[in-house]
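Entry for tryptophan complex. Fields follow.
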Amino acid sequence: MSTCDNLRPVKTSLTGIKPTHLPHLGNYLGAIRPALSLVEHYRTLYFIADYHALTTVRDADALRGYVRDVAATWLACGLDPDRTLLYRQSDVPEVFELTWVLSCLLATGQLERGHAYKDALARGESPNAGIFNYPILMAADILLYDTDVVPIGKDQKQHLELTRDVAARLNHLYGEGTLVVPEARISNAPLVPGTDGEKMSKSKGNGIPLFEPPKKLRKVIMGIKTTSEALEDPKTAEGSTVYELYRLIAPDRAPEMEQKLEAGGYGWGHAKEDLFEAIEAEIEPKREAYLAIRADEDGLDAILHAGAERARAIAHRTIGRVRSAVGIE
Ligand code: ADP
Ligand code: TRP
C-alpha cells in the first residue's frame, strides 16, 4: 500500500434492507453476502428500513417479527456490530426532519416519474402516498449519514439519481458541503434462480429457505424443476437451475458437476443431492448462529438500540448542519 492510500479517508457505505419477509437463498447470495464483503473497504452502515416496509406490510406483529428475522439473519451471516453500524430506521426519527426539508426541494413531477409509483398505477392500483413519497425517505436515509457509496440493485438506480439531484440542489441553494452527494454502486451479483428456474422471489413461492431445518431444505431442493432425460443420458449443465445454483454456491466444484452431467450416468437426483450438501455446508453454521440470536430477542434489541445510538450521533450532526443552512435555527 502506498503512503497515498494510507492518507485517503475511509469512505462510508450504507445499505438499507426492507423487512418484508424472511430472507431466502437469493437474498443471501444476491444481497447479504456481497454487502458484507464491503466491510473490508468502507466504514459500513446497515439499517432495517421498517418505515419503508410500512408501505406494504399491514400486520404489526409480522413487521416486528421481520425486523428481528432480518437483523438476526445479517448477524448470523457475519455482520459484526462492533465493526459496523446496524440499526433500525425508526430508531432515528431525525430521518423525517430531513425528509421534509428534501420534499420541499423536489418537484412532484419527479416523484410521478418514480418506477414503483408508475408501475402501481399501470397495474390499476391506487398507490398510497407512502409509495409516492418513498424515494424522498430513501434519499433522507442516505443523506443523513454523509454516505459516499450506496450498493444497490439496478431496480434502485432511479432512487439514487433522485438522491443525488436533491442533495446537489440543497447544496447549490444553501451552501456547498451541507450534504455529501453519494454515488451508486450497482451490484453485479448474479440473479439467483428459484425452484422453477425463474428469479427467486418471495412473492413467486419459488424460494429456497435459508434457515429452515435441513429436512425441509432437502425437500425443497429435491423439488427443483429439471428436464427428464434417463439416468444414463448426457445432460446440459449450463442453464439448468440445479447446476446454476451449484455454480453460485460451490464455484470451485462446479466444473466437476458439469463434467459428470455431460458424461451421462449421473442423474438430476444425484446433482440435487450434491447441491443440497453444498448449500448445507455453507449455511449449517449460520443456521445454528441464527437460531441462537433470533431466540434472544432482548439481546437482539440491545444490539439494534446500541447501533441506533451511534447512528443518531451522526444524524444529529447532519440535521444541525441542514437546519442552520436552511434557516430553521
Ligand atoms: P424478493 O424479490 O424476494 O421480494 P427483496 O426485494 O426483499 O426480495 O430483495 C432484497 C435484496 O435481495 C435485494 O438487494 C435484491 O436485489 C436481492 N435479491 C432478491 N432476490 C434475488 C435473487 N433471486 N437473486 C439475486 N438477488 C436477489
Ligand atoms: N428501497 C430499498 C429496497 O427496496 C431499501 C432502502 C430503503 C434502501 N432506504 C435505503 C437501500 C437506503 C439503500 C439505501 O430494497
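NOTE: The two ends are 45 Å apart (CA to CA).
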